[in-house]
């Protein structure tokens, strides 16, 4: 069965995104309690680009911290085992607590400004695993934002999509590739 959960129709439950409302969905995650979180982007570029994270029931909206926008273009999202909400954004992973308060921003572990986060997942130890597409590597960061290590392997090229199974095996989809690679740690 297919049904609209969120979109451009007149049902109040579905209101909030789409071109009519100025935001389009970029990422989606199901929480451990069965809730749905959505990354929304305003379809603008440069200085005007902004985004937010909402729960589909409307009880949570995350978009600002200390009068500054939290997100530029939130793309991938996951709930960590400790309840934190982890979002890959432009040049940063933004982590808030379950109530939307900013915990930290991880901007890569080098002084260069080319961190390019995309796919994101969390392991059973609440470490955050994020694909760094431009730099051909995967970052592993602890639940408090401290860099732990890079995952690299022969032939890694533009990792973009990530997910993890119950045995902490990370599945990697690469940009412009037809293969799914598995990293057993």
TrEMBL record:
One of its GO terms (biological process) is proteasome-mediated ubiquitin-dependent protein catabolic process. NHL repeats lie at residues 117-144. PROSITE patterns: NHL (PS51125). Coiled coil: none annotated. The keyword Repeat applies. GO terms for molecular function: ubiquitin protein ligase activity; zinc ion binding. InterPro entries: 6-blade_b-propeller_TolB-like, NHL_repeat, TRIM-NHL_E3_ligases. This is Tripartite motif-containing protein 2. It comes from Magallana gigas.
């Amino acid at each position: 069965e297919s049904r609209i959960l969120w979109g451009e129709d007149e049902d109040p439950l579905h209101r909030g995104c789409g071109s009519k409302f100025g935001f389009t969905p970029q990422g989606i995650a199901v929480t451990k309690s069965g809730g749905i979180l959505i990354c929304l982007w305003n379809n603008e570029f440069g200085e005007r680009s902004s985004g937010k994270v909402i729960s589909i029931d409307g009880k949570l909206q995350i978009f600002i911290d200390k009068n500054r926008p939290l997100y530029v273009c939130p793309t991938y999202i996951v709930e960590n085992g400790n309840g934190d909400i982890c979002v890959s954004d432009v040049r940063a992973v933004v982590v808030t607590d379950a109530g939307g308060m900013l915990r930290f921003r991880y901007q890569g572990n080098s002084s260069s400004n080319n961190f390019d986060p995309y796919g994101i997942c969390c392991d059973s130890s609440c470490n955050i695993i994020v694909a760094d597409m431009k730099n051909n590597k995967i970052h592993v960061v602890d639940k408090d934002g401290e860099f732990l290590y890079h995952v690299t392997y022969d032939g890694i090229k533009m990792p973009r999509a990530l997910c993890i199974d119950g045995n902490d095996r990370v599945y990697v989809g690469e940009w412009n590739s037809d293969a799914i690679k598995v990293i057993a740690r």
